Predict the structure of N-acetyltransferase domain-containing protein.
Amino acid sequence: MTIAIRDVREHELDSVLALNNAAGPAILPLDAPRLRRLYDHAEYFRVAERDGALAGFLIGFGAHAAHDSVNFAWFRARHPDFFYIDRVVVASRRRGGGVGRALYADVQSYAELRYPQLACEVFLEQGADHALLFHGSFGFREVGQNVMAEHGLRAAMLMKSLCSYEWVRQTYGDALPDVPWLQRPRPQAASAAAREACA
């Protein structure tokens, strides 16, 4: 069964919200206004689809985004340039079926052309061994810990160097080739273009 990774569509935000809030204690809950802010400002917001159903999603931000996450701020205070995975969620019935790996492969292919490092966190209070093992198998290493005072949660702060970035930077500088798969619009820009096309 094929896993398709694609940009989120605006009409799917209710489904994304339900998926997020059913994910359990390893993922912070969201409300609709917060999810809308993420949708409006995320550099990367893609979903995984399997058998025609939403199976997961991943949201990310570049280091210079106006993003108010305390864990994002922790990374920004210590590292000049990175791509931050704000959250990744896989539907419980799809866990262990490759959806998380497909999302991580996709976000890495996006980030490594634009950023030298990939960053994320894993909450440690919730029996995190499987999450730490998953990230370790992708080459992430702990670079510190952060306690989120608002939630009382301790997070392992993880980073991974993206080895393709330096070659891409030396070869193309700030101007990636003008090919469709590299010029992916931000989610809200894509939905605005779709609305204009239908008008």
Q: What stands out?
A: Residues 135 and 141 are 8 Å apart (CA to CA). The helical segments are 13-21, 32-41, 70-78, 99-111, 129-137, 164-172, 187-198.
